[in-house]
Amino acid sequence: MNNPNAQLDTAKMLKAMQGALSCTNAKIMQMTQVFDVAQNVLECEKFKTAALALVGGLCDKYGAERVSLGWVKNDYVVLKAISHTDHFEKKMRVVKDLEGIMEEAYEQDAAIVFPASEKNVLSIREHEIYSNTNHTKFILTVPIRKGDNCIGIVCCERNTHPFTDLDSEQIYLTASLCAARLMELYDKSCWFGLRMAKGLRKVLAKFLGFEHTWAKFFGILGIAFVLFATLYPIPYKVSATAILKTDKIIYTTAPFDGYIDTVFVKPGDVVYSGCPLLKLNQTELRLEEADLMAQEQDCRREIQKAQAAHQLAEMRIYQARLAQAQAKLKTVRYKLSMATVVVSADSAVIIEGDLQKRLGAPVSQGSELFQMAAIENIYVEISVPEQELRNVKLGSQGLLAIKSRPEYVYRFETTRISPTAEVKEQENTFAVRGEFVRMTPAWFRPGMTGIAKIFAGERTLWWILSHQAIDYLRLKLWW
């Protein structure tokens, strides 16, 4: 029963089982390292934190002096993280060198081990230059893939011992496990507009294909715009500056020669019937009134004396002087009643007459003091440029927006086009009068300005954008 061959076979089987168990333990340890690093990355909530967790974990697990992460952006590799380094300058020489060796691996779409073996067929020129420049003996550059696309590059450096194929496989596996999470966090860290553009590109790629998606989209968009601009008519409106006016302008003049004593209003004030505007000095008139009253009393006494003495001629003379003094006194009192200038219109706004700085200044009878515009029958006057006059017709409707309240627009109808031009801002313009279709609001004031748009039919967008330039060329190039 005790066969030595059977004992030998049992020993070999035990040894083989021990070797398999040892290999399995090693594989488990290796996978544990991979999952530890991946778990740390998957728990991060920001791209920068996840990138630092990945390079830091790889650096610690594989005994590297430095591990770097580059991210593919517009077919270029941009360095995003360096192990155990929170911040670095993008213009540093080492950063540019790292991006160079990463792009070498990205362009060849393969992992690069330096120094390379004799069977190597990949270009390692950038790795060799980097090794000589930065005194790094061993370099491993591994691409990070998400599906069929390379989204990033991991570069590991160390000087103690070279990287093996097993190291390359494990680092590649770790990066692949983290690729989806890194891509998700990177997309979230982008600007809101860029995220929307990426989402739109994914949707468009389903219809237009994944290659040259934006070029196809903008090409189709451009063709659609050209067809729309040349074929589809849209409402055209002539735009011009406008001002509110009224036909009823009231001029207030000085009632007599005098001096300005008090001014009660200034331009822009709204006044109503009976409101005082200005008061002239009354001192000389009061003195003249007192003198004439004294003359009146003297004449009355002289008339009584002449009556008592039966001097008829003298009585007639003093009666005439009394009438003259009374007439002068009446004139003086009339001037005193007119010394305070008041408003005669029901409601108006002062548009000219800033007399606050002219207190004490003399004024002549009939000279203009104030100019007022009555707040009634307000219309709009539009200054239409000469080149746009042909597009404006009587009876056309338009919209007006006032500068003081541009959120509201008011509809009007053109009723008159001035036959003569005016020069405004070195340009010939024609005054077009517009009557408001509905009742104007109470806050409308003559002199307010805004922008008016007069409906001029339907035109294509191409005509709207080009007709002024075409008219200019026709005018300059005709012979």
Keywords:
479 residues, alpha+beta, Beta-Lactamase, Elongation Factor Tu (Ef-tu), domain 3, 4 domains, five-stranded antiparallel beta sheet, 10 helices, 19 strands, 44% helix
Q: Class by helix and strand content?
A: alpha+beta
Strand content: 25-35%
Number of helices: 10
Number of domains: 4
Strand order of the largest sheet: 6-15-18-17-16-19
- Name the assembly state: single chain
**Biggest pleated-sheet summary:** 6 strands, antiparallel, barrel
Please mark out the parts with pLDDT under 50 across 5 or more consecutive residues, or reply none: 4-8
Dominant shape: elongated
**How many strand elements?**
19
Query: What average pLDDT do the residues reach?
Result: 83
**CATH class wording of the largest domain:** Alpha Beta
Measured as a percent range, the helix fraction is 40-55%
How far from one another are the termini? 127 Å
SSE pattern = HHEEHEHEEHHHEEEEEHHEEEEEEEEEH
Describe the structure in brief.
The chain is an alpha+beta fold and 479 residues long. It contains 10 helices and 19 strands.
Structure notes:
Helices cover 44% and strands 30% of the residues. The chain has 479 residues and is α+β, with helices and mostly antiparallel strands. The chain has four domains: 29-189, GAF domain (Beta-Lactamase); 193-230; 238-244 and 377-477, Efflux pump adaptor protein, beta barrel domain (Elongation Factor Tu (Ef-tu), domain 3); 249-373, no CATH class. A six-stranded antiparallel barrel has the order 6-15-18-17-16-19. Strands 2-1-5-4-3 form a five-stranded antiparallel β-sheet. The termini are far apart. The relative contact order is 0.09.
